[in-house]
Amino acid sequence: MDRFKNKVALITGSSQGIGAACALRLAKEGCNIILNGHKFDERGEKLIDQIKEMGQKAIFLAADLSKTKEAIKLVKDAVSEFGRLDILVNNAGVEKKADFWEVTEEDYDLVMDTNLKGVFFTIQAFVNYCREHQVSGTVINMSSVHEEIVFPHFAAYCASKGGLRMLTRNLATELAPFNIRINNVAPGAVSTPINQDLLNNKEQLEKVLQNIPLRRMGKVEDVASVVAFLASDEAAYVTGSTYFVDGGLTYHYEEQ
């Protein structure tokens, strides 16, 4: 299947985990890929090799999305590399655990600047490209089940994802006249490097699994498949939505 033949996707935070899975899934279906992270290392090299083996083009552009100027430059550089940009997947994100009364301004700013402000201005740069060249586009934001449900000790993270939910709904209306679609994907408990502590704690892991009707952690491929659907023409009438990829967790949740 070549749903994305000749198309180009920029996937932020794509050195590992969900971002890397999204890159591989889109490339498998014919998409050329622009990878992103803070720095280019062996993870990026391996992904580029895998994508090229599929017959697609791939490059890596380093950028810190918590810095607005770097976010805007990333989009401009992405367009310069391949001459076009069709799909933007805002996957880069951070979380910081702390009791609310101990959250530092530094950690708050890092979370909000990366998860919300960085996404805001990356989308803005993409929209300006689409408008200037009069082309359609698709934006997929990596949100979280915590745009909907509570997550004690992660107040800033929840605030950033709640803000992302409203931003997506607002932009769905504002960008529709330009044929730009925008949606959120909200993973639940997924086996990724960011969840390694949980995966190593059998007692805590079992408590989490008791809250998931499907009784398993999600795989990065589970998330990537939904991203691929939303990026494709099969989702041409879908905008302003959040797709939960959580095994049923969101509406079957009790804090342990």
Automatic annotation (TrEMBL):
<dbReference type="GO" id="GO:0047936">
    <property type="term" value="F:glucose 1-dehydrogenase [NAD(P)+] activity"/>
</dbReference>
<dbReference type="InterPro" id="IPR020904">
    <property type="entry name" value="Sc_DH/Rdtase_CS"/>
</dbReference>
<keyword id="KW-0560">Oxidoreductase</keyword>
<dbReference type="InterPro" id="IPR002347">
    <property type="entry name" value="SDR_fam"/>
</dbReference>
<dbReference type="InterPro" id="IPR036291">
    <property type="entry name" value="NAD(P)-bd_dom_sf"/>
</dbReference>
<comment type="similarity">
    <text>Belongs to the short-chain dehydrogenases/reductases (SDR) family.</text>
</comment>
<protein>
    <submittedName>
        <fullName>Glucose-1-dehydrogenase</fullName>
        <ecNumber>1.1.1.47</ecNumber>
    </submittedName>
</protein>
<dbReference type="Pfam" id="PF13561">
    <property type="entry name" value="adh_short_C2"/>
</dbReference>
